[in-house]
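Protein in question quoted for reference:
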Amino acid sequence: MKNLTNATRVYIGQDRACRCGCQGKYWEPGTRGFKQAITKAQKLEADDVDETYINFPYGNNRAITVYFD
């Protein structure tokens, strides 16, 4: 699995929804939300892994999606 600290952005929001930002929020490196999302994602199990992202579902239809360029 990729090193999550090399991520270029993270999404926190609904899992079974588009990732346009209407159902969640994007965080960039250096922000508090980014750091919190990476810390939480490291404790979760991934369900979808791709070259450009890793999705970590949790709770009721919630997810953290970590993106790599």
Remarks:
- The radius of gyration is 11 Å.
- The first helix runs from residue 32 to 41.
